[in-house]
Every structure is written in structure tokens, then in C-alpha cells.
Design a protein that fits this description.
By secondary structure, this protein is an alpha/beta fold. It has 15 helices and twelve strands. The strands form two sheets. It has a seven-stranded mixed beta sheet, with helices on both faces. Strands 8-9-12-11-10 form a five-stranded mixed beta sheet.
């Protein structure tokens, strides 16, 4: 029985710890070895036991890809050199003239890839408020081949009803890909809700320690897996074995870390909402969040990602806060054990034109937090002194 089959029906924590883990046959090592090799010796031409060249496959990567499938309740996983590389592979399923319906509140790197790279090759992207499923449905044309959504979104924490959009996609005969980076498999499993592909920037919560760049795709359909594997192998955006080892290691503690991220996120969100200098807090765990009921239904918790604006919504006021924290480090990225503070307008979302950002609610003064797993009281004190 394979590791994957043995974990069928097991609970989440057990899956995270044991997914992809097989004792090394030569030594019995409990941790997957780092197979640092570029090629494999063949006993005769074509007799390569599944491994011939490391761009095509690597045993450490194979273990990770099995783990990715297990933790997302999928059949197949593919690992890429970054989240953007994984996104790139999905769009390469399309042809010139095809159309994509995408959420209008999405990661700046995704927007840049869509607009600056793939639009040049004749792929059309239509951006809609994906929290309104009627707008998603209305945007689909005979040329639409893919719907792309994030939920929760980066950075405004909007929630899209995955099951409802999946039903729309299925009826229209188009693929649905869900960026599940913010929620992680601990909080949400889009394949269970009808999505065709799940994308992760594994750099974030899956790795969890700010020490690796990697991306992932998970799916159930074998033909889709084969098409994406062909792109992975042919275009070459594959992760190295050390990176795969680090993400495998990170997955083992994902459930423990996410519990603390969620607990700390609740404390910080409540503190910010009650602070006299804070105007608005974007966090999907508030009962008055527009799609709170959907979040509560499709997620198991609300995570440690949030954004907020000050009553003085000037860049100067925000920069003062961004420059004054001691525990929240001013940096790109998210999802590590340490807390990060970020200015989307000039950092993660700088590639989105200002008029588009403002139209979608991403103001110049917006501050984004990735709440880590430090002591929540210390994080509150840090924000308190930074807000003044």
C-alpha cells in the first residue's frame, strides 16, 4: 500500500506529518533524502526506473508532489520553482484568442504576469468582482477557457464562494483555478468544493519559515495533470531538491503553525478594530464582513492575514507606522513564523496601475499584516507603540 493510500481517510494533522514520507529504502532514514543529482544511471537505454533527468523528475520532488496531493485531497500534485511559475503553467494551457475571467482583487505578481506577459500573446483577461457570482457568470463568453480566483484575496481579504463559481465554471465548460495561498489546506480545500486546480505559493505558509521560493498545483483530473506536467517538464520551471525538502519539512508543522496564526490573527484584528487611529480593518473573521457566512462555510478558520487603513489615510501616516514596528518586520512576502508588515501600494501590488488599485479599494495608505506565531501580547504592544 502506498503512503498516499494509507493516509486516505486520516485526519488532517496525521496527513500533514506523514504525507509523502516513505523511509529511505537503502538506509531507513525517516526524512526524505535530498537527492542532489542532475541525472540518473540507466542499466540499459530506456531502463531508468522512472528517473532519467532531474528536470523531468527527482525523488525528493516526487515525495513533495505526493504530499501536496494528499494535503489538498487531490490525486496529483506538481511542484514549481515559484508561485508565479505555477501560475504561468496554468495560463500556458490556453491558446491565443482564449479568454480568462479573473478576480479584480489579486496578487500584484499575478496581475503583472497576466497583463505584461500573456496579453502580448493574445490571451484576454477580464477582471470582475468575483464575490458577486452574477458578475462572474456575465463575464463568461464563448472564448472563456479559465476562471481564476483568490479567496481570501490579497490584500483586501475578500471572499468568493468557491462552490458557486465552480458550478458556473462546470456549466460553462471552463476550468476553475483557485489560489489557496492565504487559506492553506489547513483552512480550505477548493478541490472538495468543485475547483479543477488549486495553486499555492508554497513560499508562504506551506514552507512557513521564509527560507524557500516555490509553487504548487494540485488537481484530480489525470489528463489535466499530464498537460501541466508536460508544461512543467518542457518549460523547466522546476524546484531544486533542497527547496522540495524544505517545503516537505514545513508541511509537517503546518497544522500547528496555522492554529497559532489563526489565534494571533483574531487578537490582532480585534485590537486594530478598537484602536482610535484605525479606520477600517480587512479580516474575513468579522461577523459583519460582507461574505462572513461564506467564509465560515468553506473555511475552518480565518487565518492571520489582514489589512487596515488609518483614519489619516495618507501615505505619510502609513509610512510612519510601517517604519516604527519592532517585531513586525517591513518586508515582502507572508506566511512565515515571524510577523511581517507591508505597504501593498508600493511593494506587493506596485505593478497594478494606481487607478485600478483605487477603484478596487486598495488605497495608497493601506497596510497589510502577516501575523506570525510570536506571543500575541507582544505583537499587540508592538502595534500599539507604532500607532502612537
Amino acid at each position: 500500500m502506498s503512503n498516499k493510500d494509507a493516509l486516505a481517510g486520516k485526519k488532517m494533522a496525521t496527513k500533514f506529518i506523514h504525507a509523502g514520507a516513505e523511509p529511505d529504502p537503502s538506509t531507513g532514514a525517516i526524512m526524505t533524502p535530498i537527492y542532489q543529482t542532475s541525472t540518473y544511471v540507466q542499466s540499459s537505454p530506456g531502463d531508468h526506473k522512472g528517473y532519467e533527468y532531474a528536470r523531468s523528475q527527482n525523488p525528493t520532488r516526487a515525495a513533495l508532489e505526493t504530499a501536496l496531493a494528499v494535503i489538498e485531497n487531490g490525486k496529483y500534485g506538481l511542484a514549481f520553482s515559484s508561485g508565479v511559475a505555477a501560475t504561468d503553467a496554468v495560463i500556458k494551457l490556453l491558446n491565443s484568442g482564449d479568454e480568462v475571467v479573473a478576480g479584480n482583487d489579486l496578487y500584484g505578481g499575478t496581475y503583472r504576469l497576466f497583463t505584461k506577459v500573456f496579453e502580448r500573446f493574445g490571451i484576454k483577461f477580464t477582471y470582475v468582482d468575483s464575490t458577486n457570482t452574477d458578475k462572474v457568470k456575465a463575464a463568461i463568453t464563448s472564448k472563456t477557457k479559465l476562471i481564476w480566483i483568490e479567496t481570501p484575496t490579497n490584500p483586501l481579504m475578500n471572499i468568493t464562494d468557491i462552490a458557486a463559481v465552480a458550478a458556473i465554471a462546470k456549466k460553462a465548460g471552463v476550468l476553475l483555478c483557485v489560489d489557496n495561498t492565504f487559506a492553506t489546506p489547513y483552512l480550505q480545500n477548493p478541490l472538495d468544493l468543485g475547483a479543477d486546480i488549486v495553486m499555492h505559493s508554497s513560499t508562504k505558509y506551506l514552507g512557513g519559515h521564509s527560507d524557500v521560493i516555490q509553487g504548487a498545483l494540485i488537481m484530480n483530473d489525470h489528463d489535466l495533470r499530464e498537460r501541466l506536467y508536460f508544461i512543467q517538464k518542457s518549460c523547466g520551471a522546476v524546484p531544486g531538491p533542497m527547496d522540495c525538502f524544505l517545503v516537505l519539512r514545513g508541511i509537517k508543522t503546518l497544522h500547528v503553525r496555522m492554529r497559532q496564526h489563526c489565534d494571533n490573527g483574531f487578537v490582532i484584528a480585534q485590537f486594530l478594530r478598537n484602536h482610535p487611529k484605525v479606520d477600517r480593518v480587512y479580516w474575513c473573521g468579522f461577523k459583519d464582513h460582507p461574505n462572513y457566512e461564506i467564509a465560515k462555510t468553506q473555511m475552518r478558520g480565518f487565518g492571520g492575514m489582514m489589512s487596515f487603513t488609518l483614519k489619516d489615510d495618507s501615505v505619510e501616516a502609513s509610512v510612519k507606522v510601517l517604519s516604527s514596528t519592532k517585531l513586525f518586520s517591513l518586508a515582502e512576502s507572508l506566511g512565515g513564523v515571524e510577523s511581517l508588515i507591508n505597504h501593498p501600494a508600493s511593494m506587493t501590488h506596485a505593478s497594478i496601475p494606481r487607478e485600478e488599485r483605487i477603484k478596487n479599494g486598495l488605497t495608497d495608505g493601506l497596510i497589510r499584516l502577516s501575523v506570525g506565531i510570536e506571543d500575541a501580547d507582544d505583537l499587540v504592544e508592538d502595534l500599539k507603540q507604532a500607532l502612537g
